[in-house]
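Page 47, continued from p. 46.
Same chain as before, 396 aa.
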Amino acid sequence: MSDLRKARIANSLMFLVCGLGVASWAPLVPMAKARLGLDNGSLGLLLLFFGVGAMITMPLTGKLVSRFGSKRVIVVSGTLIAAILPLLLILDHTYQMSICLLIFGASTGGINVAMNAQAIKVQRSYGKHIMSSFHGLYSIGGLVGSLGFGLLLKPGLDAMTTIIFISVLLVLITYSQFSSLMSDDPAEIQDKSTKGFKFPSAALLILGAICFISALAEGAMLDWSAVFLTANRHLSIEFAGVGYAMFSVAMAIMRLTGDSVIAAVGRLKVVVWGSVIASAGLILAVCFPYVSLALAGFLMVGLGCANIIPILFSTAGTMPGLSPAYALPVVTSMAYAGILAGPALIGFIAQLLTLPVALGVIGVCILFAGLIFKIKDGRNKAVQIPEEVEALVCKN
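Result:
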């Protein structure tokens, strides 16, 4: 097997580690809510620490990647994720959970920037778009983490044994694949775009803003799907992770086939129509009081959102004149603000109104993200955006 092929497999498994680690937190959320005696607003505030940790780390990770290489950042972050998971199951004080979620979010933020930088490097070596397949392994990790936790509990394993098993698995994968990851040449990635403060260009900020809006749905599925199904659709706790599992199945399928879909219809249409499908899915889930329709809606959210962020990450990582070590932290920070900090906003809206209304608001936001782009088929027109951004998406 060639070194390039090994590097692709190794980095794909790092996406799997990240997805598995983050998704394993999803079924723990309702347990933490009950253990700590939190209402929706208090839970939303607690979840904010997860986002704050990631948002602090992501802008710094580009510097760490430039200095130490993405390989080292990946292995340290993956180890911390594995170490924190069992603590999230047993801590019974809010301040302790807040600190652990801060570290957990920081580790997640670090590995996200580093593995996407590694993915851009591998993609450049391949000479074609393969970013969707990397993110597909993240979604498979999400499926295994959310659904697998419940399945391991059914045979009689206790929750602690289950979460320790998952943590050990994360460590084994991370260290076994470390040597196959591509090495970073600091001179290659540490160009003038990484030195000193440079305000991001309008094009880069627009890409990040669209990522933020799209990622709101992923954050909603991660932190609130289990709560929604148990509290609003009366699903039993052992199946609380099935909503995120449905979402992750759809994400995995679409991302693993995404490179072919993008080649067939073009990146721009994938972004636009994906947003429409995701929006329709959330509206379906919250408007009808049936578990089956809620699960179908979550599946639609996964189908629609699947390839939006991989496309925009790839676009940012290949912007002319910008190092990936500079551009990726900008868009990943904005995207994971949606994934990690967005659920806190959902909690506040849910406390003021209801959780279904909060999720419906996210559906409207996703539709807006799709309308930012125009469909270039000569007939349909929507909200215009700067030509520089549109050209980058269509080109990359």
